[in-house]
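ok trying this again, last paste got cut off
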Amino acid sequence: QVRLVESGGGLVHPGGSLRLSCVGTMDYEAVGWYRRAPGKDREGISCISSDKRTTWYTDSVKGRASISRDNAKNTVFLEMTSLQPEDTALYSCATALCSADGPYDAFNFGRGTQVTVFS
């Protein structure tokens, strides 16, 4: 399976916004977004089912993140607003199962896109 490819990361000031994209073959599969902050384990932050009916956000991004997908373009988006320094991390996507408790059984991770929030 072709690796997913993330883009859209960058340097932003606190309060800024970014729209991350994840492109790749994801037919009929849910997709999860993950991030790994310096010195911390990777954590799942959001996921969306293949039919878009199920979405999930971890508490730390709830209300600031919005996940969506365009199946015709094999793309999943994660828009994040009100970014803070603690959001600094390598953000990656993966095909996964998406439940009311978050993503699981993830595989085919992309290489990630770096998000850095600095004053």
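PB: full thing came through this time. The chain has a mean pLDDT of 95.
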